[in-house]
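A sample copied in:

***
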Amino acid sequence: MIRRCLVPGLCMGICLTAPAQIPTPPPAHAPRAAPAAASLRAEARKQIAAAAWPAAERRLKRALAAEPGDADARALLGSVYLWTGRHAQAVATLEPLVGVRPDDVLLQSNLALAYIKAEEADVRDVRKAASYLLAASDSAPSAEALPILAAAYKDLRASPAAAVLFADLTPRQRHRLAETLMRTEEYPEALALLEPLLPETPDDPLLLNNLAWIHAAARQPQVREPRKAIAYARQALLYQPWTLRIWHTLGEAYLAAGDWGKAYRIAHEGLRAARLGQSEQDASEFGRLLARVVRERQITDIFE
């Protein structure tokens, strides 16, 4: 093979070069490369969703063997340990991630539950469990984190040491934690957190609205009190009559009390106001309330 010289005159303008080497094909039975850690994590997530814990654990350990610094794989492995009752291993696996992910709500939730569930005396730590629980509740817990937080709170409440810690909660911490519990419909626990605030802040519209919602939405007979819910919501509206969220709570309270007419008017007018204000979330909530009012009224009419 020939090529033109890059330095004219050096070799009369023409150079000889060796023919290009053709790469040797790999052996027919060459070992395949190990799957990437990302692929193993993706498979493990599917197995976790299906509660196939042993298979998920195997893949996550393979991922960590390939990439020891894979924080996602370590977090997933910690959750596998948590949900298979190996709480000490969950703590040992998850705790080193806190410095890397200080704002990870799911990580904080898992650690809260692992610390309070651990049977080993040198691992179980009520104070750490409460600290992680409050940190997670102070953020915006995801749907995945909510049931974990609720479970951790229930176990913590049963601990005398935690009772002392919860007695010293600030009003903000009580509100945040109660709202987390309300999202998982743990209404008796949420009520226990909020009611002590009422004598101190009887004119707080957020507190009044949350109390109204609890008494209207709760299915537990010891908590469900529609008339009390109506009173709290109406009182909240005295301070913030422009807040659609409170009007929605009042509509729910009237529906719980069986006052179809008032519930319908609030839902209808609330939907119109939300659309005018271009608030999709409020419009969706009032739309669902309106549909429930109509449906429940029709069902009642059938039996009357």
Notes: The radius of gyration is 30 Å. The CA atoms of residues 78 and 90 lie 5 Å apart. The first strand starts at residue 2 and ends at 4. Confidence is low (pLDDT under 50) at residues 1-23, 26-34.
